[in-house]
Amino acid sequence: MAQMTMIQAITDAMRLELARDPKVLVFGEDVGVNGGVFRATAGLQEQFGEQRVFDTPLAESGIGGLAVGLAVQGFRPVAEIQFFGFVFEAFDAVASQAARLRYRSGGRYHAPIVFRSPFGGGVKTPELHADSLEGLFAQTPGLKVVIPSNPYDAKGLLISAIRDDDPVIFLEHMKLYRSFRQEVPEGDYTVPLGKAAVVRPGKDVTVITYGAMVQTSLKAADKVAESRGAQVEVIDLRTVSPIDIETVVESVKKTNRAVVVQEAQRKAGVAAEVAAQINERAILHLEAPVIRVTSPDTVYPFAAIEDQWLPTVGRVVKAIEDVLDF
C-alpha cells in the first residue's frame, strides 16, 4: 500500500471515480488548471479534460445551482466550495433544493451530489475560512454529512459519497490535509457512510468525536492512561448525519461514562445531539453526567487568539477526569 496524506487520498478517490463513471463531474473555483486552492484536484483536468473537470465563476450560489441541475439530468457532480464559511451563498441550492429533491418529486428524481469543502481551525486562516458549520447541515433532513479524520477513511468515504444517490456534504479539515501519512490502498475500496469506528478501545470512559478532534482526543486518552491508568475508548463518528448511535450506546453501556468533543461552537450542535441520545437510550448505565468539550458560542475568532478558542488536549483530559471522579 502507498503512504498518503489526506489530500492525496482525496485526490485519488476523485481520480478513480472519474475513471470509473463518465457521469462524474468535478467543478468549483480554481479546481481546473490550478488544481484547487489546496491542490486536491491537481492533475485531474489534465487527465480527464475540461468537459469533466472545470472551473466555475467565483459564485458559490452558481456552483450549488449547477450541481442540482446536473444531478437532475443524470450526472454525479462533485462540487467544491472553496472554503466552507462561504457555503451560505449556496445554502438555498443545498438545503432547499438538493436535500428535498427526492421527497418533493415523490422519488422521481434524486440528487447524487457531493459538496466537498475544506473547513476547520488551527491553521490561522482569515475570517470566514475556518468555521465549523456541520451542525447546520446535520439538522437538514435529506443530507448526509461526512467528516473524515485520516487518509484511509477520507478516500473510502469519498468514494462512497460519490456513489451515493443522495446529496452528501463532505467536509475536509484543513489541519489534517498534510499533517500525517497513512497506508492507503491504491485501488478501489469504500468505507460505509453512517458507520462510526472505535479507534481506541477502552473500558473506563467513552470519548465520542470526529474530524481533527479525533487526534486531540487520542492524545488526551494517552495522557489519562499515563497519569492514572484509565482506559479511554475513543469513537470516531466519521459521519455526523446520520449518527451511528448504536456504536456509541454500546460503548457507553460498557464504560458507563461519556465525553463528547467537537470543534464547533457548543449550542445545538452534533455534540448536543449525541449527549441527548445517550441520555435517551442509556441513562440507566451512566455513572456520571455526559460532558461536552466544545468551542465557545462566539463567532470564530481572529487568528491571534485561535489557539485559546479551540478545544485543547488539556480541556479533553480535564473532562475525562471529571467524569471519572464524579
UniProtKB/TrEMBL annotation:
Its EC number is 1.2.4.1. Keywords: Oxidoreductase, Pyruvate, Thiamine pyrophosphate. It is an enzyme of class 1 (oxidoreductase). The keyword Membrane does not apply. Residues 4-179 form the Transketolase-like pyrimidine-binding domain. Signal peptide: none annotated. Its cofactor is thiamine diphosphate. Pfam families: Transket_pyr, Transketolase_C. GO terms for molecular function: pyruvate dehydrogenase (acetyl-transferring) activity. This is Alpha-ketoacid dehydrogenase subunit beta.
